[in-house]
Amino acid sequence: MTFTVLSVASELYPLIKTGGLADVAGALPGALAAEGIAVHSLLPGYPAVMQRLEQAEPVLHWDDLFGGPGRLLAARAAGLDLFVIDAPHLYARPGSPYAGPEGDFRDNPQRFAGLGWVAAELGLGRLSGFRADVVHAHDWQAGLAPAYLHYAEASRPGTVMTVHNLAFQGQCAPELLAALRLPPQAWAMDGVEYYGGIGFLKAGLHFADRITTVSPSYAAEIRTEEGGMGLGGLLRSRAADLSGILNGIDTAVWNPEADAALPGPYSSDTLSAREASRAALRRRMGLAERPVAPLLGIVSRLSWQKGMDAVLEALPALLGHGMQLAVLGSGDPALEEGFAAAAAAHPGQVGLHRGYDEALAHLVQGGSDALLVPSRFEPCGLTQLCALRYGALPVVARVGGLADTVIDANEMALAAGVGTGVQFAAAARAPLEAALGRLAALWQDRPGWQQLQRNGMAADVSWRRPARHYAALYRAVA
Questions:
Q1: How far, in Å, are 151, 239, 307, 427 from residue 375 at the CA level?
Q2: What is the Cα gyration radius of the chain?
Q3: I want to staple 186 with a disulfide (CB 3.0 to 4.6 A). Which of 65, 114, 191, 198 is the partner?
Q4: Of 376, 364, 373, nearest to 297 (Cα)?
Q5: Which residues participate in the annotated binding site?
Q6: d(CA 379, CA 401)
Q7: In angstroms, rounded to a whole number, what is the distance separating the alpha carbons of residues 16 and 14?
Q8: Rounded CA separation 342/336 (Å)
Q9: Angstrom distance (rounded) from CA 448 to CA 465
């Protein structure tokens, strides 16, 4: 008998992506298939999604879907089984799924209430021939799905709520309660009320049968006052229902032995072939031809959360060690300007590419000797998993999933032959400078460095283990 999960997310790679949520939502269905789990993914019909659909067939229709007519399409795209909400008044907008030139779309509450409401409709069996054993909601945009299912007062499937980043919570005015099709009794502390407003993520965390987040360490951090970001008390009360399941990466997409974005393939047995990617990255980023210099990479949002201010403060130490830096990212205008100024002041030593470029992200992983990930908090992180896969040593702050996935190359780890990168205490100048000093010392031992690379490349960063954990959780919930 087929076990079916409805995965509800606001983005999904390779159709629409702004961050790691899309990578997870896109890769998990394939990994779960090996566990006997059939996943149908529900997402909004943004223009980028609608253009990629194959075999799209209308299966449900609503005269009024939060302000206009809408259809549900059953479709295939990129090898995934999809349900897509075709509601142009909500989703037919260019650019970001969440914001326009003037900031967040004002009707985001209605747009993502629509996502949760359609998920509940499917969960309640409104579509003939489709039955979900579990509805799996991802992040605040899908947070109302467990609430709608709860208030339906009908037989419903099990529900799982996954927090990819607790910092994004989805809040709106209480006056929207009726417009969001929530009953009056939902306005309560044991409902959707959250500090005087309606909390999408709070609703999901309160009503879902089980809660997951994307690493065991982050699951512990968010139960604290500091890490809980206003939701710590609720998460402590639900500690028995909360678990951390590490993310994986798609090892077919991220594979240095068959990556078209690299000038040539390499493996842990042919690390010398990696030099072509190092040279290509230096050329692409306008860095001087210095093969003996350690080349450090960054693929990140340029934000306070990601610790990018600490990188700028530690830049003199980095350059003092003779290192080069290649930065790919965008974000806080002040930090963008800070890296642009650094690149102008240190030509050939610091290179910056503003924005995001998927192929360049692969080249940074393949061409960097080490990858900086100095986050102040990090639910899981995917970029350090890619770095391990590509033989770039992750240099990470000891938080969340970074602490769970990188083995610090300290004296005992080196002696045991198990180190894969460098951990440091916190995203601040002094700890990062100390980590850079350790990295420079490791670089001097070329055979030892290559052993660290091989250790990382041998690590299992795939979805195999996480998929087994999710499959067991789904069956327990159902």
A1: 38, 25, 5, 6
A2: 23
A3: 191
A4: 364
A5: 17
A6: 6
A7: 6
A8: 10
A9: 29
Domains and CATH numbers, the chain: 3-248+463-477 (3.40.50.2000), 271-458 (3.40.50.2000)
AA identity, residue 295: L
* Residues of the binding site for ADP-alpha-D-glucose: 17
Each residue's pLDDT, cut to its tens digit, for the chain (478 residues) gives 689 999 999 999 999 999 889 999 999 999 999 999 999 999 999 999 999 999 899 999 999 999 999 999 999 999 999 999 999 999 999 889 999 998 999 999 999 999 999 999 999 999 999 999 999 999 999 999 999 999 998 899 999 999 999 999 999 999 999 999 999 999 999 999 999 999 999 999 999 999 999 999 999 999 999 999 999 999 999 999 999 999 999 999 999 999 999 999 999 999 999 999 999 999 999 999 999 999 999 999 999 999 999 999 999 999 999 999 999 999 999 999 999 999 999 999 999 999 989 999 999 999 999 999 999 999 999 999 999 999 999 999 999 999 999 999 999 999 999 999 999 999 999 999 999 999 999 999 999 999 999 999 999 999 999 999 999 999 999 9
- Choose among 452, 437, 444: nearest CA to 392: 452
| Rama region for 210: left / alpha / beta (φ>0; ψ in -120 to 50; rest) | beta
Q: Is 218 left (phi over 0), alpha (psi -120 to 50) or beta?
A: alpha
What is the 3-state secondary structure of 164-175? CCCCCCCEECHH
